[in-house]
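This section describes the prediction task in plain terms. A model, or a person checking by hand, is given the sequence of a single protein chain and must write out its three-dimensional structure as a string of tokens. No templates, partner chains or ligands are provided. The sample shown here is typical of the held-out split.
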Amino acid sequence: MERRMYQPTESQEQKWARHAAPAMPTDDEFKAMWKKSHHGKVTGWGMGKREWIVSQMKFSREYQIGIWQGRVDRAQGLDYSEERSENVYNLGYYRGYTSYESDIRGMDAETRQRFAAEYANS
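The expected answer:
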């Protein structure tokens, strides 16, 4: 079986292009923001920064392509694979592949049918 590659829609491309990644704060800047929002405590700032970084990845095109490619591979019954070296893509791929069933249930009926017709194995 030949692997199908996900092709984003024009509206997806437009949406992804609108989101620019914010500048990464330095550790000192992040510690100061953390301290201000946590009543003067610095404890936990490293985990907070990690969560901030992951939340910002969601806006990147590579992350979104990874999510959709993971869903396509899962729909086709292919094994999980990380073929790219970009962490952003691989995180998206992992999340798309592993949460495929719940993602499909969350789609509206028209989108689910369109996805199945184009990418799922019949």
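For orientation: Residues 38 and 98 are 33 Å apart (CA to CA).
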